[in-house]
Amino acid sequence: AQRVTQPEKLLSVFKGAPVELKCNYSYSGSPELFWYVQYSRQRLQLLLRHISRESIKGFTADLNKGETSFHLKKPFAQEEDSAMYYCALRTGFQKLVFGTGTRLLVSP
Amino acid sequence: DAGVIQSPRHEVTEMGQEVTLRCKPISGHNSLFWYRQTMMRGLELLIYFNNNVPIDDSGMPEDRFSAKMPNASFSTLKIQPSEPRDSAVYFCASSLIPENYGYTFGSGTRLTVV
Lengths: 108, 114
Description:
The complex is a heterodimer. By secondary structure, chain A is an all-beta fold. Chain A contains no helices and eleven strands. Helix content of chain A is 0%, strand content 44%. In chain A, the strands form three sheets. In chain A, strands 2, 5, 6, 9, 10 and 11 form a six-stranded mixed β-sheet that branches. Chain B has no helices and eleven strands. In chain B, a hairpin with a 3-residue loop joins strand 4 (31-38) and strand 5 (42-50). Classes of the chains: A mainly beta, B mainly beta.
């Protein structure tokens, strides 16, 4: 079965601190992984795709097939990063399976 | 393109009433998805369409829920009769498959059933 696990419901850090949002997946096929961000009462927005290996707003994520992980990282958190972050797995049937999300709170 | 458009933004209804949520996907996208977001369960896929055909409706909670996509530019999600436990934010998303850009989400409809 396809599954995405985000173990932390809430991650609270101070501005300037490093951030790592954890994501683990379970999928027997070749995974496609994404990170979505949802700012307060706004729509979900695509943040990162693993295949593009890009850095968006200072965030990066590396797919580790051995550990079945796709953790989201940023070296120095900013207050405007405070949001809900969802890790998602696209399966062979082209549907996205989301984790339960992690709320990141960056305090001044 | 104005993105994925959902209406209404907010809906408050009484238990037992019929509720219809609407979605206009991005022009040219061939797939449309309905998700429900709650605090307890996060984002759950209810149903998705490809080329206007329902492909997977295994996430539809029960027979009270139904969805249609009569053409490439419009979809509805209907709940009849509505119950308080249906209160949630319902998101519609569209995508062009096969491709690797993920989905584009609408702003959602916040449904409250009292």
